[in-house]
Amino acid sequence: MTVKEHYLKNIAIAWPVMIGQLGHVMVGLADSIMIGRLGTLPLAAGAFANSIFIIPMVFGIGMAFGLTTPVANADGQGLPEKVRSYLKHGLYLNLAAGIVLFILLLLFTPFMNQLGQEPPVVALARPYFTIISSSLIPLLLFLTFKQFAEGLSDTRIAMAISIGANLINVGLNYVLIYGYAGFPELGLNGAGYATFIARVLMALAMVLYVFRKQAFKAYTEAFQWLTVQKSHFITILNIGVPSGLQYIFEVSAFAAAAVMMGWLNAETLAAHQIAISLASVSYMAATGFGAAANVRVSNQLGAKNVTDMHLAARTNFIMTVVFMAFCGLVFYLGRFYLPTFYSDEATVIALAADLLIVAVFFQLFDGLQVTALGALRGLSETRIPTLITLFTYWGVGLPASYLLGIKGNFGGMGIWYGLAIGLTVASVLLYWRFENRAKKLISHHSQEHVVI
Question: Where do the domains of the chain lie?
Answer without folding.
Answer: 3-447
